[in-house]
Design brief:
Number of strands: 10
Helix content: 40-55%
Order of helices and strands: HHHHHHEEEEEEEEHEEHHHH
Distance between the termini: 9 Å
CATH topology of the largest domain: Butyryl-CoA Dehydrogenase, subunit A, domain 3
Radius of gyration: 21 Å
CATH superfamily of the largest domain: Butyryl-CoA Dehydrogenase, subunit A, domain 3
CATH class of the largest domain: Mainly Alpha
Bound molecules: flavin-adenine dinucleotide
Number of helices: 11
Length: 388
């Protein structure tokens, strides 16, 4: 399979690259204390980046998943925190609103997302259950003509900045995964509160969010019937976008390592002149290019959602690769790599996120294993899995 960008798409990606390299790179260190990168978000809104997942009728660009992955990759090369903030606007929450929200909410929120004025939070994880979705306790029920939401969510990104919360919740206490649907909660709703903050090694803050007797309009229950399966379909897109950030972090760290290997001298020679270092760089580029191939294949399979098996393979491959490559890039920098003075330590810390959010490596490997066991065909071999 080959990937092809039109001239217009290529120009768009190159414009984002130029902005990221000229402006974001220099100020990436500012966001390591939990500061939200508003200035970068506004600059990206001006380019149209925040509207990549928004349909054109709501002022967005409505671009394919592949283009979105390329843009996230460029941003992540220099600033993990900004890439994660952008993921919030081009990822699953925007896609759920665009696909399932009532027209009035779409018409109000989506153009504001494009302008960089409406940050969206997604609330899935609960204090006692992250991976174990079937154990969620948050519940919404109908009371008269309205809805009432109760529950606690945790490790939520961008909660203080969010204009809208996309909340995965049990509907009418129905049990199991099948009982999970999705409601939209607007900032300022009585009973909604951000009640805790965790600072992360990646730089951003995560938060606890409580919903206590939040009264919502009935139409804010946007996914109910067969809810979880439909929501998971949107999640396969996230499984191409999260690894795009991992790929970008690995590339950014690799570029730093190459620069350092050319400049730093030991024993009277640039360290890159030593075979031990050259092989390290070769291994890094080999891993990056292998991961890129599977990610781009997965992203290009989106029509409109990516193939679930390819997306899972891409996510695990890129997430795990980024940890190894950023660690090796840090090693090339010697002791200086461990200091805050070199970008590589930031990229390394950001790369640790990939295997945790959007489906852990363990969960996805289990999913891949099940698909192999059920789909592997002794006659067709791996062709039976439908990914080649
Ligand atoms: C930077 C960052 C941003 C985040 N942003 C958000 C957000 O905006 N919204 C949100 O809802 N959540 C967010 N999260 C939370 C994230 O989605 C959860 O951390 C993730 O789903 C895992 O849940 P958990 O932390 O409860 O781990 P657990 O589910 O408790 O898992 C702990 C460990 O056990 C393993 N495990 C669990 N079940 C199995 C199994 N069946 N087989 C094998 N291994 C298993 C896991 O893989 C993991 O290694 C964020 C997390 C991070 C790090």
């Amino acid at each position: 399979m080959s990937w092809h960008l039109s001239d217009e798409e290529r120009r768009f990606v190159m414009t984002v690259r130029a902005l990221a390299q000229s402006e974001f790179k220099g100020r990436a260190g500012r966001y390591m204390d939990g500061t939200f990168p508003w200035e970068n978000i506004r600059a990206l809104a001006e380019l149209g980046v925040l509207g990549m997942a928004v349909p054109e009728e709501f002022s967005g660009l409505g671009l394919p998943v592949f283009d979105t992955a390329l843009v996230l990759e460029e941003i992540a090369k220099v600033c993990y925190v900004t890439a994660m903030a952008v993921l919030g606007e081009v990822g699953v929450q925007t896609r759920i609103i665009a696909s399932y929200a009532p027209q009035a909410i779409r018409a109000r929120i989506l153009p504001a997302v494009c302008r960089g004025e409406a940050i969206l939070a997604i609330c899935m994880t609960e204090p006692h259950a992250g991976t174990d979705v079937a154990s969620y306790r948050t519940n919404v029920e109908r009371r008269g003509g309205a809805l009432r939401l109760n529950g606690v969510k945790t490790l939520i990104s961008r909660a203080p900045e969010a204009a809208m919360f996309v909340v995965f919740t049990r509907v009418e206490k129905r049990p199991g995964r099948e009982g999970i649907g999705c409601v939209l909660v607007e900032k300022g709703t009585p009973g909604l509160a951000v009640t805790g903050t965790f600072h992360t090694m990646g730089g951003e803050n995560l938060h606890e969010v409580r919903f206590e007797d939040c009264e919502l309009p009935a139409e804010n229950l946007v996914v109910e019937e067969d809810g979880f399966r439909r929501l998971l379909t949107a999640f396969n897109t996230q499984r191409c976008l999260n690894p795009a950030i991992s790929l970008g972090l690995a590339e950014g760290a690799f570029e730093e390592a190459v620069r350092y290997a050319r400049e730093r001298e030991a024993f009277g020679r640039p360290i890159g002149a030593f075979q031990g270092l050259r092989w390290k760089l070769a291994e890094m580029v080999r891993e990056i290019e292998a991961a890129r191939s599977i990610l781009y294949r997965a992203a290009m399979s989106a029509n409109p959602f990516p193939d679930p098996l390819l997306a899972a393979l891409a996510k695990v491959t890129c997430n795990e690769m980024a940890q190894r490559v950023t660690s090796e890039a840090l090693q090339v920098h010697g002791g200086y790599g461990f200091t805050d003075d070199f970008p590589v330590s930031r990229l390394y810390r950001g790369a640790r996120y990939g295997t945790l959010g959007g489906g852990t490596s363990e969960t996805l490997l289990d999913l891949i294993g099940k698909r192999v066991l059920s789909g592997f065909d002794p006659v067709d071999g791996i062709l039976g899995l439908g990914v080649v």
